[in-house]
Amino acid sequence: MKISFRAIGKTHDPQLRMSIDDFTGRIRHYFPIEWTLIPAPKITSQAELMKVEAELILQTLKPGDYLIALDEHGKQTDSPQLASLIEKQSFQSTRNLVFVIGGAFGFHQTILDKADFVWSLSKLTFPHQLVRLILAEQVYRACTIIRNEKYHHS
User: Fold this and answer.
1) CA angle (92 as vertex; 87, 96 as ends), nearest 5
2) What share of the chain is helix, strand, coil (3-state, %, to 5)?
3) CA torsion sign, 128 to 122 to 65 to 114?
4) What is the reported pLDDT for 11?
5) How far apart are CA 13 and CA 126, in angstroms?
6) CA distance 101 to 129
7) Helix count (H) and strand count (E) of the chain?
8) Backbone phi, then psi, for 83, in 5-degree steps?
9) Which of helix, strand or coil describes residue 130?
10) Domains present along the chain, CATH in parentheses
11) Diameter of the chain by CA atoms?
12) Can you give the pLDDT at residue 75?
């Protein structure tokens, strides 16, 4: 199984990039992984922006991808539950587990409808670039939980 992280927005803040790259590299010990940044369209209407972002995200998906949309209104999980979800997908022969981070206004309903799982990191609001770091760290933590390694202390 391959893990794909996709995000609407610009390149990583240099102060966060090193940490994101570190956790991404750690995940590579468990699964092939890739990051795809989708540039935010230059549209002023919020509704139109969300629609175009959704179209851009949908263009990156392939049949059989398992889509996890990070959304503030999604289901909150703890780290062991995330590990269980990832492990379950690897056992079900999912070819590509796709985590997607939306733009500044969140997702158009078409993405939420298409998602296999809508996940909320927290009820708190985070900058999108920080969400990238939290996502990478949590997926790495989930990998260590699956392998029963010492990184996660329950």
Assistant:
1) 80
2) 45, 25, 35
3) negative
4) 77
5) 14
6) 10
7) 5, 5
8) -60, -45
9) helix
10) 2-146 (3.40.1280.10)
11) 47
12) 97
In whole angstroms, what is the distance from residue 6 CA to residue 80 CA?
Answer: 23
Measured in whole angstroms, how far is the alpha carbon of residue 74 from the centre of its chain? 13
SS3 122: coil
Alpha-carbon gap, residue 84 to 143, rounded angstroms: 10
Structural contact between residues 88 and 147, judged by C-beta atoms closer than 8 angstroms: no
Distance CA 154, CA 141 (A): 11
- pLDDT in the model for residue 124: 92
Per-residue pLDDT of the chain (154 residues; tens, 9 = 90+): 999 999 998 876 888 999 999 999 999 999 999 999 999 899 889 999 999 999 999 999 999 999 999 999 999 999 999 999 999 999 998 999 999 999 989 999 999 999 999 999 999 989 889 999 999 999 999 999 999 998 877 5
Assigned token pair, 142: 């989930």
- Are the CB atoms for 126 and 13 separated by under 8 Å? no
| Cβ contact 73:109 at 8 Å | no
